[in-house]
Write a structure and sequence with these properties.
Layout: E1 10-15, E2 18-23, H1 34-49, E3 55-60, E4 64-66, H2 71-75, H3 82-101, E5 107-111, E6 114-116, H4 119-125, E7 128-132, E8 136-138, H5 152-159, H6 162-171, E9 174-176, H7 177-182, E10 188-190, H8 192-207, H9 211-223, H10 229-246, H11 251-261
Helix pairs in contact: 1-3, 3-4, 4-5, 5-6, 9-10
Bound molecules: acetyl coenzyme *A.
């Protein structure tokens, strides 16, 4: 039975094992209010528990992906209340980084339109990202007198090249989905009319991977970034051993049999039969 719920500011759409998690305040360009942060934490937890959700696609309702933090409800409303600010900040960091960057299922950000400021964090946290050519991105913080806070600066410097990160942060200049793909903030961009179908095709391909191998692989790529080569070798050897013994589906053995004994599968060219 589906474990997906309903929320005030988030909508879930389920199709063929893929759950689209939609930030749903289109009249506010999906700006992130505290309520949206609370709802996103709940919605992502529900997606973890829902056995029918194999892949999560994060997107926005209407003409925007997400216009960043809600300047009125996230900032001004708690300017004089540090306790409320802290609670909201923890909820904001919780889903956008802690949950998404280590999500136990594949995640794709599908950037359908405006993507500003704080929204760069959830794009960076998703495993993969596809944008509409027409989408508009911007690190607009400098335009209204603040810094790319939360962990936006850390993320852009990690995902983008240093020169691009600096350029867009200090100028506040916008860039399109096509440009986002060229500087590798997203994996690729396609015309808006093709965005959902292209994302769905990718999601269905990820759905076919061994879930445990996918998760270990994603963690290997994310976690080794800050390590020395010695630490990485140690970590990866330990993870390889853990995967070998900890995979309930025993996929490694199945795949070896299909390649070495049955000769029914070419690992270089596609998936084994699970
Ligand atoms: N915070 C609060 N409200 C917002 C935000 C936001 N980040 N973005 C849009 N809204 C609201 C507008 O105030 C407006 O509300 P109203 O109808 O009650 O007046 C509504 O959403 C629609 O916005 P418009 O500006 O009318 O929509 P338009 O399509 O013309 O422009 C755009 C969209 C470009 C996204 C513009 O709204 C904008 O510049 N928003 C702020 C983007 C930004 O700088 N975000 C970074 C915030 S800082 C951070 O994230 C750390």
């Amino acid at each position: 039975m589906s474990k997906l719920g309903t929320y005030e500011t988030v909508k879930l759409e389920h199709e063929n094992g893929i759950t689209f998690v939609v930030m749903n305040r289109p009249e506010k360009r999906n700006a992130m209010s505290p309520q949206l942060h609370f709802d996103m934490n709940d919605a992502l937890d529900d997606c973890i528990m829902d056995d029918d959700t194999k892949v999560v696609v994060l997107t926005g309702a209407g003409p925007a992906f997400c216009a960043g933090q809600d300047i009125k409800e996230f900032f001004r409303a708690s300017d004089k209340d540090p306790k409320v600010r802290l609670k909201n900040r923890r909820a904001s960091h919780g889903w956008r980084w802690e949950k998404l960057s280590k999500f136990p299922k594949p995640t794709i950000a599908m950037i359908n339109g405006y993507c500003f400021g704080g929204a760069f964090t959830q794009v960076s946290a998703c495993d993969l990202a596809i944008a509409a050519d027409e989408a508009v991105f911007g690190l607009s913080e400098v335009n209204w007198g603040i810094i790319p806070g939360g962990i936006v600066s850390w993320n852009v410097v990690n995902v983008l090249g240093f020169r691009d990160a600096m350029w867009y942060a200090v100028t506040g200049e916008t860039f399109t989905g096509k440009e986002a793909a060229a500087i590798k903030f997203v994996n690729k961009s396609v015309p808006l009319a093709d965005l959902r179908a292209t994302t769905m095709k990718l999601a269905l391909a990820l759905k076919e991977k061994s879930p445990v191998a996918y998760r270990y692989t994603r963690d290997a790529i994310r976690s080794t970034r800050g390590m020395t080569v010695e630490q990485a070798a140690d970590y990866l050897n330990a993870k390889s051993d853990a995967l070998k013994t900890g995979d309930p589906e025993k996929n490694r053995e199945k795949a070896m049999t299909q390649f070495l004994d049955e000769k029914s599968f070419k690992p270089g060219l596609g998936n084994f039969k699970r």
